[in-house]
Amino acid sequence: MAVEEVGEYNPRELEEWILWYWRENKVMQKTLQPREGELFSFLEGPPTANAPPALHHVEARTFKDIVNRFQFMQGKSVPRKAGWDCHGLPVEVQVEKDLDLESKKDIVEYGVDRFVEKCRESVFSHIKEWDSLTERMAYWIDLENPYVTMADDYIESVWWSLKQLWDKKLLYEGYRVVPYCPRCGTPLSSHEVAQGYKSIKEETVIVSLRAKERDFSFLAWTTTPWTLLSNVALAVNPDIKYAVIKFKGENYVLAKDLAEKRFPEAGVVEEIKGSELAGMEYYPVFTHFTGKVDKPAWRVVTGDFVTTEEGTGIVHIAPAFGEDDYIVGEANGMPLINPVELDGKFNSDVPELEGEFVKDADHKIINWLDEMGVLVAKYPYEHDYPFCWRCKTPLLYYAMKSWFVKVSDVVPSLLDKNSEVAWYPESIGTGRFGKWIENARDWGLSRNRFWGTPLPIWRCECGDIRVVGSRKELLENSVGEVKEDIELHRPYVDAVKFKCNCGKEMERVEYVIDCWYDSGAATFAQFHYPFENKELFENSFPYSFICEATDQTRGWFYTLLVLATVLFDKPAYLNCVVAGLLLDDNGEKMSKSNDNIIDPWELFNSVGADAVRLQMCSSAPWNARRFGLESMNENVVPMLRTLWNCYSFTVRYLTLDGFDPREADLEEAELTIEDQWILSAADSMVDSVRRSLESNDYHHTLSKISDFIVEDFSRWYIKLVRDRLWLEGTDGGMNPLKKSAYISLMVVFDRICIALAPLAPFMSEAIYVNLVKRDVPSVHLVSWPFPGKVDEELISQMRVVRRLFEAGSRCRQEAKIKLRYPIAKVRVSGDSDVKAAVERLQPVILKQLNCKAVEYVDSLPDVRYAATPDFSVIGPKHGKDANRVSEAIKSNPAEAKSIRESGNPGKIGDFEVTPGMISDIKLSVPEKYAAAQFSEGSSHGVVLIETERSETLLKEALARDLIRNVQELRKKNNLEELQRINVEVSKSEKVEAMLSEFKDMILEEVRAEGLNTVENLETPENFKYEGETVFFKISY
Question: What is residue 914's predicted lDDT score, i.e. its pLDDT?
Fold first, then answer.
């Protein structure tokens, strides 16, 4: 099949065509099929499809797709099952909004069965948007056979795991203070709470509580004034020194260190150790519960959690609303006073506030404290406060019964399993995630909600408990008729009763479980393990790779590890890539409140999915990165356009010659030195990309590909071979230099397509299909090549020559000689590496520097050096000898140059001189030369060009100007490359002299049949050369 011509780069049209091509050829399906070879197991983090996807979903999916494509190209089998998270508050809150329900009571009145059905319908309300985005961004995953957490088979596997936890004594019911959402009416787990913190500013107070037997009052500080109604104790640290201070005529007790900070003008009356305050009684601020409690209250207790970091060093204790408070209250046999209902509102125990939400009552309570004369101070305090991660209501800490997973018992095992995980970045595993595990609390599992996996626990009023681990056990234990295919959701399982050994009926506890447990069970539940697919699960587990956003360190990453550890004594995953935050073009975090959220479809339709994916790789995955049209047009779009232009250039010449390089044999090609170099550089790049991808260094992968495409291929190799593509053959055959260039170009595009395929699947596919297609229909089905025979020495030498070229270009700029104007000679001096590079790559230097001769010399006597000392470095080292050292450096520029280039200290006279002491080495040459230094790695050299030009060189310069301007006019007139033209140029002495030597060269380069001079020619087309205006015109 011949290579087809291509047009301008239009990412939207190109990508939509490629999507059609993939569908027609079922390319994605081919990558999902089982194959021989090593298994690379991937676990998809399940999103919830009851809201449309956003740009941050594209981020993690890009990284996942890169890894999976690469591993498939490595010859591995890479199953990619999609997953959907279906249960929990995300769904319930949305359905409540849709139905205009405001409380759990409203749900019960509406009907739990009807509500659950609405939840089921809502789960996939945006599935089409998810499927469309998944396809458009080329995230290849099996959407036709996903795991779904609300499926009965999935729930049954979750039940099995809960039974395992019960049997291991890791599942228990306890009465504890838990984070609680009064709007959703349910407790939350610590990892859920961690996702909802916001920085808030609210009024805090310092209140005085008068001691019963001493003439002072205790000063207690609190950020939650509403909890003072439930106060039962004050806590001090037994080892802290406290002070009695005199302030405004009153005696107050607080930590001595804080007394000096809070009340610097107050005098210290007495110092008391915290342990001496223990047991003292005081009068409560509020008397609503005086005489109504049956346990001792309102006395001072001790606790080592009390610090002097903030507040007063005296903590007010309300066991109903604080975890530490509850523990202290239990330890000291104190009452639990709770005047707050589950909706977060005060009850009739506090009639003045009955029906008022506790956080809203703070202002009123502060006024009461002031009126009572016990408000010593109030001030705004900024701190992080937990909000419900779904409905955004402020959480309360509330004492209640809940079911827990005893994570605290397995912390050492969690740390051990975490050490087996390769984290990207490593600092997450040892830092944020590792510290979270070290301080892991028991997992609050139960939720007082409706749509979720029912907690499979049945209880009798006699206290007996039965935990069910399968549908079979459910049916075997049930009383009465129960359908074999009973749906494993509320309210259906709620109706199932068991017979207790005592003869009474057992009923299911009305809880569902934390939806994060569902997703954490995905490792095994997606296979309906252990009821089926046992071998499939065991072969996949632990999973080779997972990737999600950084907030999952306290979410999915955590629950996966906990369940894998307690159930299987293994880590859930072996490699975890953590995706960072997305920022807008101004560096601001993307959020609805900042009104800077970008619709991914806008980006797909403007710059294309390839550009979006590449921008995701513009920095390390875990780093925050700027994202927007501006940053993409700055970072990645230029590279894509450069590649397309190189591709378009190659295709244009191939079609002109009717040559299909796929039919040629690389082994038969007569490769020039630049061909040998680009092929080695391409193979080296592909192997370097392989190593980067194996290390999940997507940002380094992109930079290596981009550097090769832009610097090596476009700016260097294509410029070297452009003229070869115009060479004519003999006897009807293709010129061997042209042929070798075509073959080399084809091989390079093959390597680029392979290296780029995981990151930019659309453009790599487009180029592959048209230009380099092998025996498989898609680049994504190609096996990653083993590195060829790479000539590392040649690659290194070409790097030296490119630095030499840059130095020579600086010389030309200094001499104001354009690159298209030929110069007579270039001389180069340097170390042995420079010498070898010049001798081997002389043809490249001649062409790129446009010179008639290049010569390596051991020295350049016309070049003088001047060394500049750096006093800021010399002074601290040499002190009073600094001036003498500076003079030694200036007087010995050759030695100074040697030290600076070597990077090692050396002697100049009697002084040791380090490279840092020499700030610069400058060159000076006679007027007829220009010189510049260059370096590449440890290699250093100097290039010297002759700036005086002969008459012949000046004539050729004029010829080159004419060629350039005629070619631009051809392009302006949209002439085909092979279109023949006639050229007329204004007659002058300079033009006539130039044509006498270079007419044939001009005719060939501009594809002209005739070139004539015309007296007094005046046309719009003209250019200036050496002060003379040259007019010209073309006809065709």
Answer: 86
Q: Which residue type occupies 630?
A: E
For the chain, give the mean pLDDT: 92
- Residues 396 and 321 sit within 8 Å (Cβ to Cβ): yes
Q: Which residue is catalytic, options 368, 389, 403, 516?
A: 516
Count CB neighbours of 987 within 10 A: 15
Distance CA 70, CA 784 (A): 8
pLDDT at residue 23, rounded to an integer: 97
pLDDT score at 1018: 86
pLDDT in tens, 973-1023: 999 888 999 999 999 999 999 999 999 999 999 999 999 999 989 899 999
Q: Is 818 a catalytic residue?
A: no
- Long-range contacts, 527-532 (Cβ 8 Å, 24+): 527/157, 528/153, 528/154, 528/156, 528/157, 529/157, 529/160, 530/157, 530/160, 531/153, 531/156, 531/157, 531/160, 531/470
Name the residue ranges covered by the structural domains of the chain: 197-236+273-386, 636-776, 864-924, 951-1035
The average pLDDT across 209-213 equals 93
Q: 197-236+273-386, what's its fold? A: Isoleucyl-tRNA Synthetase; domain 2 (3.90.740)
pLDDT for 515-544, tens place per residue? 999 999 999 999 999 999 999 999 999 999
Whether 166 contacts 458, CB under 8 Å = no
Calpha distance 617→462 (Å, rounded)? 61
Indicate if the alpha-carbon torsion angle 237, 241, 247, 249 is positive or negative: positive
- Is there a catalytic annotation at residue 675? no
User: How many whole angstroms separate alpha carbon 256 and alpha carbon 313?
Assistant: 9
C-alpha count within 13 angstroms, C-beta hemisphere, residue 495:
13
> Catalytic residue among 11, 46, 761, 869, which?
46
Is 85 annotated in the active site?
A: yes
Is the CB of residue 312 less than 8 Å from the CB of residue 221?
yes
Nearest to 921 by CA among 863, 866, 876: 866
Q: Active-site residue 458, yes or no?
A: no
Q: Do domains 636-776 and 951-1035 have the same CATH topology?
A: no
pLDDT tens-digit series, residues 947-976: 999 999 999 999 999 999 999 999 999 998
What span, in angstroms and rounded, lies between the C-alpha atoms of 944 and 634?
36
pLDDT one-digit tens code per residue, 797-816: 999 999 999 999 999 999 99
* Active-site choice (71, 94, 164, 552): 552
Q: List the catalytic residue out of 392, 534, 589, 825.
A: 589
Determine the average pLDDT of the residues in 900-908: 84
Enumerate helices (H) and strands (E) in the chain, giving the number of each: 38, 39
Q: Is 978 helix (H, G, I), strand (E, B) or coil?
A: coil
> Residue 1: its pLDDT value, please?
54
For domain 636-776, the question of CATH label 1.10.10.10 is answered with no
592 is known as an active-site residue:
yes
CATH pick for 951-1035 out of 3.60.21, 3.30.2320, 3.30.1490, 3.90.1200: 3.30.2320
Question: Considering 11, 22, 47, 85, which one is annotated as catalytic?
Answer: 85
Cβ contacts of 282 within 8 Å, gap of 6 or more: 209, 210, 211, 212, 217, 218, 234, 298, 299, 300
Looking only at the bridges linking them, the beta strands covering 575-579 and 422-424 are parallel
Quick check: bond before 530 cis, omega within 30?
Answer: yes
Q: Which residues contact 682 (CB under 8 A, 6 or more apart)?
A: 708, 747, 748, 751, 752
Q: How confident is the model at residue 343 (pLDDT cuts 50, 70, 90)?
A: confident
CA angle 743, 749, 753 (to 5 degrees): 150
Choice among 556, 622, 644, 677 that is catalytic: 556
Give the pLDDT of residue 977.
Answer: 83
Q: Could you tell me what percent of the chain has a pLDDT over 90?
A: 70
pLDDT at residue 191, as a whole number? 67
- Give me the DSSP letters along 653-671: HHHHHT--GGGS-GGG---
Measured in whole angstroms, how far is the alpha carbon of residue 194 from the centre of its chain?
20
